[in-house]
Design a protein that fits this description.
Elements: E1 4-8, E2 13-17, H1 23-32, E3 36-41, H2 47-50, H3 53-60, E4 64-66, H4 71-75, H5 77-84, E5 96-97, E6 103-106, E7 109-115, E8 124-128, E9 137-141, E10 144-145, E11 148-149, H6 159-170, E12 178-181, E13 187-188, H7 189-195
Parallel strand pairs: 2-3, 3-4, 4-5, 9-12
Antiparallel strand pairs: 1-2, 6-7, 7-8, 8-9, 10-11, 12-13
The structure holds zinc ion (ZN) (2 copies).
One zinc ion is lined by residues 1, 46, 48-49, 142, 182-183.
Length: 208
């Protein structure tokens, strides 16, 4: 699972996106780069993306934000842990809700909050448009991966919603937009549009 440290070099503030299993290494990386982690954010609340939130909150004193529709997944973490045979993680308090259409700021960086449901009901994408010849960036959680998409067979997954999210919220972004997924390597919107079978017309049949 990919956690991300998204920092503003100008104001030395950072978001810690999807605190999973390696909280100390991310906190250490922020310190090395002289960044203060001011907010914890979840793209969604499957256990691999949220098991480290309680620990990160305790160590950083930073608030945790999530889409409201992910509260159910967050509260199911102990059950999911039992299913996978892990010790159950502590379920953290949520301090604020991410609202699609609103903006999330960290230092001088601004991200559009987009709802990209289907893998999970409140999976959000954080999108920063490109500027001055630099490409945009999209942190997409588990909706779109390099060459694939997120599972829809988990609790509250929905294949039709997943394809609609990808088509309306992601494939409409500029092709050079860098995609930072919840698992696996980075890609771009253009590359996925060209080669990802789930980004082609008629992808519905892949779920049949
Ligand atoms: Zn997930
Ligand atoms: Zn995941």
């Amino acid at each position: 699972m990919n956690s991300y440290l998204v920092g503003c070099e100008e104001r030395r503030e950072a978001l810690y996106l999807d605190p999973g299993a390696e909280v100390d290494s991310v906190i250490g990386e922020a310190r090395r780069r002289g960044l203060a982690i001011v907010r914890l954010v979840g793209t969604h609340a499957h256990i691999d993306h949220a098991e480290g939130v309680a620990e990160a909150k305790e160590k950083l004193g930073a608030p945790y934000w999530l889409h409201e529709a992910e509260l159910a997944n967050l509260r199911r973490m102990p059950e999911a842990a039992r299913m996978y045979g892990f010790p159950p993680p502590e379920v953290p308090e949520v301090d604020g809700f991410l609202v699609p259409g609103e903006t999330l700021e960290v230092g001088a960086l601004r991200f559009e909050i987009r709802l990209t449901d289907g893998h999970a009901p409140g999976n959000v994408t954080l999108y920063r448009p490109g500027a001055g010849g630099e490409p945009g960036h999209a942190f997409v959680g588990d909706v779109l991966f390099a060459g694939s998409v997120g599972r829809t067979d988990l609790h509250m997954g929905d294949p039709a919603a997943l394809l609609r999210s990808i088509r309306t919220q992601l494939l409409t972004l500029p092709p050079d937009t860098v995609v930072h997924p919840g698992h696996g390597p980075e890609t771009t919107i253009g590359r996925e549009k060209a080669a990802n079978p789930f980004c082609q017309p008629g992808a519905e049949r892949l779920f049949a």
